Amino acid sequence: MTHEIGLQIRGGTKVYPGTRALKGVDFDLRMGAVNVLVGENGAGKSTMMKVIAGVEQLTEGQILMDGQPVHLGGTDDARRHGIGIVFQELNMFPNMTVAENIFINREITRGRIDIDTAAQREATRGLMRRLEHDIDPDTLVGDLRVGQQQIIEIAKSLAQDARILILDEPTSALSAAEVEILFRVIADLKKQGVGIVYISHRLEELIRIGDYITVLRDGAITGARSMEGVDVGWIVRAMIGEASKDFAKEIDHPYGAEVFHAEDVTLPRPGGGMAVDHVSMSLRAGEILGVYGLMGAGRSEFLECVIGRHPHAGGRMFVDGKLLKTRTVSGRIRSGIALIPEDRKNDGLVQILSIRENMTLSSLGAFTTGFHMNLGAERGTVRDFVKRLTVKIASMENPVSSLSGGNQQKVVIGKALMTKPKVLLMDEPSRGIDIGAKAEVFRTMRKLAAEGLGIVFVTSDMEELMALSDRIIVMSNGRVTGEFDRKDATETLVIAASAKGHAPTPVKEPAA
Amino acid sequence: MTHAATTPAPQAGSANLLLVLLKARTFIALILVFAFFAFAAPNFLSTANMVIMSKHVALNAFLAIGMTFVIISGGIDLSVGSIVGLCGMVAGWLVLYGIDLGLGWSIQFNTVEICLIVMVVGVLIGAVNAFLITKLNVAPFIATLGTLYVCRGAAMLFSDGRTFPNLNGNPEYGSDTFRLIGAGDVLGLPISIWMLIVVALIAAYIARRTPLGRYMYAVGGNERGAALSGVKVNRIKFFVYMFSGLCAALVGLIVSSQLVASHPATGQAFELNAIAAAVLGGTSMSGGRGRIGGTIVGAFVIGVLSDGLVMMGVSSFWQTVIKGLVIIAAVVVDQAQQKLQARVALQAEAAGK
After folding, report:
1. Is B349 in contact with A18 (Cβ distance < 8 A)?
2. Which residue in A20, A211, A508, B33 has the fewest CB atoms around it within 10 Å?
């Protein structure tokens, strides 16, 4: 069975400050089929889709539709060409109703002025029936669960009658039942001749639903073929290539005494319930503790409780056996805890400051006598850390935003290490950095652990978890649902534990 | 002009030269304005005129220094003009009446004590601003807009809207030296200029060489990131608003001493001039970027421009129009600089790998 090609990218290159997201890619999008797109975080999948959706423009190269070059200068252009996209990050207006969100900028009007609310509501109900969800069109989007919001995003694209529909990780927040519904809708769209691009990290899902597969690595396409005969092994090889096994080799070293201990940590969720629900764990010096869980399992929130970001969090924490009395971030840092946040851009770095100023932000006290800061000593220390962590920079005075993701991450790590921590918390330390830098970050983690630092790291990447952790904790719905020694841990066990408490998801049964 | 010569790339040479020019734009503008008036306005270059002009500039420069700190940390302080008025009235009241305790006698103060009390008043109002912003979560624009009205009203209430005249002080109480703040000279320079030099140097030192200064930039650049790095964000905000209040109090003192009178409407719209000077000097309204040196140059551009236009006999209506155009032009050029900077970096990156 062949499908005609509806859209092509030829020689597409996209440069961002600090990174090359796409390196001359050639991509074919087939109509009436599901075109699956895989690759690691930061491989360039989302960038490529943003280019197609008109959100970003190619630095070089062109886009062809039905053989003709087209210019997609904005989302309006893309929409005119029948391209719809459901973004990975939800782009909704939480202060508006479901119907208003679905018809934003395409309102059904009487005489172009008066919005026909009734018609919009009716159309929304129709869409919801099609998606088998019982969501009232007048609900505020902010009141919906993330999974439901994702359904609304999908409905929004359906409402546009798109010829090409891009779904960027649409299932990441959906429950198993909701995924089934989505798959039925996709099959339906396929029959109508819609070309679908489907991005996901769940490989089994891809093999099940895809007709064609394209694999991206480091901004380049490393494999593109029809789905027939493709198995997980092939995808993984194309995704991570030969460099994949370059995870840090284990350095065997004895663990020290218990360095950190948390008891009954709780954090109420704003909408009720618990984001972190009585979590306890302990960590020994030199140990790497991997924390695994699905999105929203409360992993990041737990780390934030430990660093003191949430003053109203409950529970007790001990460093070196001493109870922490301080509840402020600066106090926790002084007690020997350091955090490398998940969101490097918004939490980890001050983008407009220089590399030097970012690195020393947590430890300026070390260069200060009274009021006076010794800039020479500061530069010296930064130079040491740049060398130690092999950060590639032209000058430490350049803005940190000019660095690539991997080097930015090293700056954040440097900032944390400068506070001389005993416990290092790392939230998704490999997110958005390329493979080479990843391996280096992992090597650094190993080395630090060997030097006696206790490390807690949160990850969603199974391979990373298995390769790096000395011990594994699995969280689900704010609770610890599993704890394994590395020797006993298998992927199946870990995944089963991460789904605990998710089985009876509070989804209303579809009414049809 | 910190990293003027850090990125030498041969093919991007012209772009780099343009960047250096753009970065020094306020300074170039000052020289151009200065040169223009030196030719166009008679007596512009005379020593007497220079002294008068720098006295005018000093008032705005004080406020602009405080404003720069506030804006760098990501806020705005609209209340400074009213603090100037209120502090002037407090100073006038203390010189004329002292503090009447209602016991049939009053406490009188000497000049130094008056200055200290007035400065404390300014700092306290700044602390109120910071309290509203940090503890009660009021947006800086609204919080300081509120104190703008409150302070102006309070200044009017002091005298029922009348002027406190003849602040000559009383030698018996040691307050007769109050006039010297505005009128006195040391080594040929007016005292207010010496004060400005001291405050500017301290402020520049704080910004460049103390953790406090570094934290201000960090809070303005990324408040969440700074907080997660252990920066005590609220403390930094208290400092900047209190410092801004202090600067305004100094201006209140200087103005009432120069005029030997204090009027409750003094300082109206001063906050706008201060913001203008900071922006002209390259301070980014979104926070995280700005320098004291730039702000001083910005204050001079505005001051020289308005005084020069007066000397040329240009109508005050046109002066206002020209001032507005200069501010808009400054921001447009600033945007162009940002864009060019980003493009140079992007090209280097695309060529590099």
Report:
1. yes
2. A508
**CA B317 remoteness from chain centre:** 24
User: Residue A174 has which token pair?
Assistant: 């959906």
Report helix, strand or coil for B126. helix
A408 touches chain B (CB under 8 A): no
Q: Which of B221, B220, B266, B290 is nearest to B64 (CA)?
A: B290
Neighbours of B127 (CB within 10 A): 15
Instruction: Compute the C-alpha angle B209/B213/B218, nearest 5°.
Output: 125
Interface of A with B in 291-310 (CB under 8 A): 307, 309
Q: What are the Cα distances from residue B2, in Å, to A243, A261, A443, B6, B346?
A: 41, 45, 35, 9, 21
Q: CA A287, CA A290: separation in Å to the nearest integer?
A: 10
Q: Which of B91, B95, B115 is nearest to B106 (CA)?
A: B95
By CA distance, what is A374's nearest residue in B? Answer: B209
**Structure tokens given for A343:** 């969101």
Distance separating alpha carbons of residues A350 and A358, to the nearest angstrom: 6
A114: which 2 tokens?
């008066």
Predicted confidence (pLDDT) per residue in A246-294, tens digit: 555 566 778 888 999 999 999 987 766 788 889 999 999 999 999 988 7
Q: Smallest Cα–Cα separation from A342: which of A393, A280, A299, A292?
A: A299
Contacts of B346 in chain A (CB under 8 A): 15-17
| Contacts with A, B 316-335, CB within 8 Å | none
Q: CA B207 to CA A353: how far, in whole Å?
A: 13
Q: Is the pLDDT of residue A506 over 50?
A: no
Per-residue pLDDT of A367-418, as tens digits, reads: 888 889 899 999 999 999 999 888 877 788 888 887 777 888 899 999 999 9
- B222 has a chain A CB within 8 A of its CB: yes
Q: Tens digit of pLDDT for each residue in A446-498? A: 888 988 899 999 987 777 888 889 999 998 888 898 899 888 887 778 877 87
- How far from A97 is each of A92, A93, A102, A366, A508, CA to CA, in Å? 10, 8, 9, 52, 19
Smallest CA-to-CA distance from B242 within B108, B141, B128 is with B128
Please give the CATH architecture assigned to the domain spanning A5-241: 3-Layer(aba) Sandwich (3.40)
Give me the total of CB pairs closer than 8 Å, taking one residue from chain A and one from chain B: 101
Domains in chain B: boundaries: 44-334
Q: What is the CATH architecture of A258-336+421-499?
A: 3-Layer(aba) Sandwich (3.40)
Type of residue numbered A389: L
- Ramachandran region, residue A474 (left: φ > 0; alpha: ψ -120 to 50; beta: rest): beta
The CA distance from A73 to A85, in Å, is 15
Whether A79 has its CB under 8 Å from any CB of chain B: the answer is: no
Q: Does domain B44-334 have CATH number 3.30.1050?
A: no
Q: Report which secondary-structure segment, H or E, holds A329.
A: helix A329-334
Other CB atoms within 10 Å distance of the CB of residue A258? 16
| Residue A308, both tokens | 């003191």
A449: which residues sit within 8 A by CB, 6+ positions away? A251, A253, A286, A287, A288, A455, A470
**Where does CATH 3.40.50.300 sit in chain A?**
5-241, 258-336+421-499
- Distance to chain B for A486, nearest Cα, Å: 31
Q: Which residues of B touch A362 (CB under 8 A)?
A: 229-230
Q: Cβ of A17 and B7 within 8 Å?
A: no
CA A480 to chain centre: 21
Strands (E), A169-268: 195-199, 212-217, 220-226, 258-268
* ipTM greater than 0.90: no
